[in-house]
Amino acid sequence: MSLDDRHNLTSFKSLRRILLSVLTVFIIFKLIFSLIETIDRPQIQGKFELYQTNLVLVASAWKPTSDDEGLGALQKSIVGTDLLKSAIQQYETARESDEEAIVKLKSSLADLAPSATDPKSQRSIELQTNLVARTISSAQTEIDKIDLRIGLLQSANNQPEQAIKTWNKVIAKSTNKSKNVAASLVDIWQQPSEINTNTSPQITAEITSNFDGWFRDRALEKLYTDLGDKTELAQLELTEQVRSKNAVINLALITIPRVVIGLSGVGLIIFFTIRFIITLIQQRVERTFSQILLEQIDTPWSSPWDWEIVWQVFMVGFFFVGQFLLPVLFSAVVNPATLTARGQGAYVFSSYVLMSGLAIGVLYLSIKSYFPLPPDWFKFNWKSNWLLWGIGGYLVATPMVIVVSLINDKIWQGQGGSNPLLQIVLEGKDSIALLLFFLTAAVAAPLFEECLFRGFLLSSLTRYVPTWGAIGISGLLFGVAHLSLSEILPLTTLGIILGIVYARTRNLLAPILLHSLWNSSTLVSLYILGSGS
Asked: Are 437 and 445 in contact (CB under 8 A)?
């Protein structure tokens, strides 16, 4: 290489470093801002618990026959003894969360008071003010809906006076249709004699359009009882029993696999712990813990590139393209909030596949000059024991992430945001849309994220830090990359387990399987919960 060529190469590297440094500063600020934005956003966990409470309420109304003894026993164990009290607490917690959100939104609304003289700035402030005002109105409507349900729970819990008091509060402060619904509920419980065949159709319509499941059945049951309509009562009882039995089955589909998987994971953890202790007792130094369970985990990859390539791939390929450029381009073309469920499914799938393809393209171009790669890079070995490690890793990850999530919930108290895809799946009804969401989360995401975070990042880091350090760093970046503060700890835990499985097997098929099982089980649980309740 001539002197001029070396000079040009040095100049190019210096320019690349400057550009990457500027881009890194920009990306860091963007990530910090995105994470801060999630502080006041509710977690999906709160919605998940309410949906599960609703499903349990529906299941509690089932009256099993002698032919359903097994399912009846499961119903008793799921429903418990203090269901109504627990449900009231769940809804009151949800109400408090919405009230806190409104207080914070009103505070931010005050900060948006117009002060700028620039017309563009004033227009921007006006748009933000309108958005916050609509969000406050939506949250207040949600509180009214919660109060309507709390009143029905109180009435079922032998607290009719408290229920009427709760509904009267809605009448006094509400400015939406919840006010009329609350008035109808007060009439049903306080003045049933004034309800007749002329007014009952309107009340029935209000109940069926504003309630579902257990809440609708309780309100209609009281209405039909007051009217003495035995035919409607009998029909209501019949349909309720069918729904209630299905709810018990849905709860079984959610609960039993979760318990089995959790216990199996705990069993595996105990097994390997005992095996480690026995090895120490036998003083078999040559068979230490790392060799028993984590054989070859401490062996680094032979990374042919330096840290600048890793820096380039993540700053350009993943963060800039995936977290900034594509979202800006897509938002200029279409607003996802205006799409139908099927449109949202197509949007999520196509945008994720495009982002993955571009990021993999940046990765390919960045490491192309180092081809052929050493044999332990990006390995897909179908003949190894990847299946056992993938399933075993999933079993171990389940109880560990659950424990971390419980601690995490105490920290964030229902705030910190969540993946919006989970909310869409929970409330989704379109089968095509759900299929597209499933393909995104259970196929595209595991393939792309494992190739990038484990196949490339973890392996590359072993050139500079021990394998355990590389596992921890890649796991943390994996958690941060999902851009929800409340998910960083649980996803970092999952990322570390994915890293251990990959470092142990040196086979990307194992973490891809684990990742796919995790996402699939989450989506299936949400779908069953949403459709069942």
From this structure: no
Residue indicated by tokens 């563009």: 120
Dist. CA 264–CA 395, nearest whole Å: 6
Q: What type of residue sits at position 203?
A: I
Radius of gyration of the chain (CA): 28
The answer to whether the CB of 58 falls within 8 A of the CB of 244 is: yes
DSSP 127-156: HHHHHHHHHHHHHHHHHHHHHHHHHHHHHH
- Cβ atoms of residues 302 and 376 within 8 Å: yes
State how far the Cα of 300 lies from the Cα of 466, in Å rounded to an integer: 7
Task: Give me 126's structure tokens.
Answer: 């006006």
Which amino acid, one-letter code, is at 112? L
State the 10-residue block means of pLDDT for the chain, 533 residues long.
54 77 84 74 69 87 81 81 87 84 75 58 70 79 91 92 92 84 88 72 87 90 87 90 88 85 88 76 54 62 88 88 81 75 85 91 91 89 90 92 85 64 70 87 93 94 91 93 85 94 93 95 83 65
Residues 6+ apart with CB under 8 A from 316: 20, 23, 362
